[in-house]
Write a structure and sequence with these properties.
The radius of gyration is 14 Å and the shape is globular. The protein is built from five helices and no strands. By secondary structure, it is mostly helical.
Length: about 100
């Protein structure tokens, strides 16, 4: 989550993604790029979530975490601090079921 926040704070990734998302509506190559960028950016977090959460909780939890960081960094233009990341992780995990082995 910290790496995603840092990437967004540099201001290039959000501009790139805005262009890719806009083109993805009508361009298969842009859709593929959008999907690959998202998968690459979220692989590590997805793996951690999959190791600790029920399978049905992984994607919704990932969307909550990534969405919160995107909103903070792009729409609000605010710094994504470690305290913010800890808070959103705590909030997301409060709404999920932890795996019991």
């Amino acid at each position: 989550m910290n790496a995603l926040a840092l990437t967004l704070s540099e201001g290039r990734y959000d501009r790139l993604m805005a262009g890719v998302i806009e083109r993805a509506a009508h361009d298969e190559g842009a859709r593929d790029l959008r999907d690959r960028l998202y998968e690459t950016a979220t692989t590590g977090v997805r793996g951690v979530l999959a190791a600790h959460l029920q399978p049905d909780d992984v994607e919704p939890c990932l969307a909550m975490l990534v969405g919160a960081i995107l909103v903070r960094a792009t729409y609000e233009g605010e710094t994504v601090t470690p305290a913010f990341i800890t808070d959103i992780i705590d909030r997301a995990l409060d709404r999920t079921t932890i795996k019991v082995d």
